[in-house]
């Protein structure tokens, strides 16, 4: 079974631009979560989507948004990029249906650099 | 804030068992203990999780104390490829908003 895939793997943008990152979950997984990882703040939860609805949201400004499609694929968007948005953006998928078997599987991440 | 505390770093000799501790004194009755690891610049990798019983899989063993306030991840025969940052997370199941702390940087030494 294929793992979580994220595209693109690397991205360079300039301040003020916007960016869209894509995540394809493991087949059959309905939950997709997004995380931001920076050297200073570590791994931080952005939001989670389940069956096309945002179910959980972290403490990030409204410039960060996401969506999920009917095939469970998800995108996240960052508008008006700032230098501090440079980070590794990780996507994770899970079944989210069985209380005893609900671990998240992470993709390789998208490395975003804002100049 | 993370609900767990872990030592910032540990060393282990190759071939020996690595025992990584985690304190989670405020854990709730419905929260699971998860362990993940992250090898440099890769996505975190799931290792194991449990509620109150000890768990074992092909990668590791998880020992949870009876009061559930702490746990230990055991890598029975550490190899150089086990060098990574290990994260202990407590979370309710169905809750996909993991709160990661700084983790423990494990260095396996030859």
Please describe what this structure looks like.
The complex is a heterodimer of chains A (115) and B (110). Chain A is mostly beta strands. In chain A, the strands form two sheets. In chain A, strands 2, 4, 5, 6, 9, 10 and 11 form a seven-stranded mixed beta sheet that branches. The model of chain A has no long low-confidence stretch (mean pLDDT 92). In chain A, β7 (64-68) and β8 (74-78) form a beta hairpin. Chain A has strands at 5-7, 10-13, 19-24, 31-38, 42-50, 53-57, 64-68, 74-78, 87-94, 105-106, 110-114. Chain B has no helices and nine strands. In chain B, strands 1-9-8-3-4 form a five-stranded mixed beta sheet, with no helix packed on it. In chain B, strands 2-7-6-5 form a four-stranded antiparallel beta sheet, with no helix packed on it. The model of chain B has no long low-confidence stretch (mean pLDDT 91). The interface between A and B is medium-sized, with 29 and 20 residues.
Main beta-sheet strand count, sense and barrel state of chain B: 5 strands, mixed
What's the gyration radius of chain A in Å?
14 Å
Structural class of chain A: mainly beta
Helix content of chain B: under 10%
Written as H for each helix and E for each strand, in order along the chain, the element string of chain A is: EEEEEEEEEEE
Mean pLDDT across all amino acids of chain A: 92
Gyration radius of chain B (Cα, Å) is: 13 Å
Q: Which term fits the overall shape of chain A?
A: globular
Oligomeric form:
heterodimer
Output the number of helix runs of chain A. Answer: 0
Low-confidence stretches of chain B: none
Q: Helicity of chain A, in percent? A: under 10%
Strand order of the largest sheet of chain B: 1-9-8-3-4
Question: Main beta sheet of chain A: strand number and arrangement?
Answer: 7 strands, mixed
Count of DSSP-assigned helices of chain B: 0
Please indicate the percent range of residues of chain B in DSSP E strands (runs of 2 or more): over 45%
């Amino acid at each position: 079974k294929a793992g979580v895939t994220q595209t693109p793997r690397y991205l360079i943008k300039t301040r003020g631009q916007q960016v869209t990152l894509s995540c394809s979950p493991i087949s059959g997984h309905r939950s997709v979560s997004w995380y931001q990882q920076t050297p200073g703040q570590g791994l931080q939860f952005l939001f989670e989507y389940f069956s096309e609805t945002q179910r959980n949201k972290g403490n990030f400004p409204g410039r960060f948004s996401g969506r999920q499609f009917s095939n469970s694929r998800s995108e996240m968007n960052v508008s008006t990029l700032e230098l501090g948005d440079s980070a590794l953006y990780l996507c994770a998928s899970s079944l989210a249906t069985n209380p005893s078997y609900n671990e998240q599987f992470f993709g390789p991440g998208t490395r975003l650099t804002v100049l | 804030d993370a609900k767990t505390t872990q030592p910032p770093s540990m060393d282990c000799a190759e071939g020996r068992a690595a025992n990584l501790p985690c304190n989670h004194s405020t854990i709730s009755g419905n929260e699971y203990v998860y362990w993940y690891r992250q090898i440099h610049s890769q996505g975190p990798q799931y290792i194991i999780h449990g509620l109150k019983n000890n768990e074992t899989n092909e990668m590791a063993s998880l020992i949870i104390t009876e009061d559930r306030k702490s746990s230990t991840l055991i890598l029975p025969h550490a190899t150089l490829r086990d060098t990574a940052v290990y994260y202990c997370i407590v979370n309710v199941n169905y809750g996909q908003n993991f709160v990661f702390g700084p983790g423990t940087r494990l260095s396996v030494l030859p």
